[in-house]
Target: NAD(P) transhydrogenase subunit alpha
Amino acid sequence: MKIAILRERLGGETRVAATPDSVTKLVGLGAEVSVEKGAGEASRIPDALYAAAGAKVEAGAAATLKGANVVLAVRRPEAKSLGGIAKGALVLAVMDPFGNEADLAALAKTGISAFGMEFMPRITRAQVMDVLSSQANLAGYQSVIDAAAAFDRALPMMMTAAGTVRAAKVFVMGAGVAGLQAIATARRLGAAVSATDVRAAAGEQVESLGAKFIMTEALKDASGTGGYARELTKKEQAAQAELVAGHIAKQDIVITTALIPGRPAPKLVTKAMVESMAPGSVIVDLAAERGGNVEVTKPGAVSVHKDVTVIGTLNMAGKIAATASQLYAKNLLAFLETMIDKEKKALAVNWEDELVAATLLTRDGAIVHPALAAVPK
Ligand code: NAD
Model:
């Protein structure tokens, strides 16, 4: 059993799919591990630490992949970077297949079994493998750090001899994994925090973190399936907009995290709402990768709209790469362990397992995931 860890090739990707800790565990499971030279550099992991953990450091993708039957990556590797890969090799990464159908089809043609880690079911057994949660949690934290850095006032209330400084007001829209961590972080920094969500169940979680929950009476509950939100009707959207418009005008910092599975991010903050905020206010749009929750967000950029800073950073978790890699590597290791026979020290994939079935996107040259059934093969 040989496991290869590639250097990430997508521009701006700072994370890596294995750490010295996870390499030690993989070696303990009987694997031979190869790591591409420089793979951990942006996460502050020098090649020497991988080598000390028992990995062989190889120059270039081809040497790293030679003879590998498992590949670990953060982003979907391009088919061309997997040249020479053994048919049937397992590739674990965030595959991001929607809108990238041709790339996935090319990957399928190499004969690999591609697992999309973002398809991991949100069930108790799979919590330790949940990359969406591990990374969203860090993104929520980092969004507050970036907002605080861009904000030219203090966040906590301060009573000083020279006068009292009021606590900054932070409003978090979308109280899922990222939003709840943003609330907790803003509270730790002393801000006065409020939050909204369209799932009624989020209210209790928001309040348990010491923030005020804001929800329109007209909405009641827009929970969809699997704990996710459903898209709002036009009438519900109008009720939500009316509720938040007045509130946003009084906020110093707004952090938006709202997503709906398989849909573009809902637009929650209009240009007029941004313009209603005081000069120097800050917005962080964590949904920028899916089009953004804020009308004026420029995905991948920090912009200023009428004196309001709008942060549209992509890959927010990648800004704290060392921590993000540590948790991501643990997620992958936990999943891979379920596919290894510990006594025989060999791969033993149970293709019937619900976690395998939920995440397997390609196998034997074809795209096999039901959600991708319409993709040309
Ligand atoms: P997500 O990233 O899909 O969405 C972020 C948040 O935006 C969600 O809370 C959603 O309700 C909210 N949202 C959507 N439309 C909105 C709108 N118009 N206005 C305001 N908010 C809006 O969600 P997520 O962070 O991945 O979490 C989804 C759910 O899954 C949560 O209930 C979470 O607790 C649950 N979860 C469970 C597990 C597990 O059991 N293993 C793991 C992780 C998350």
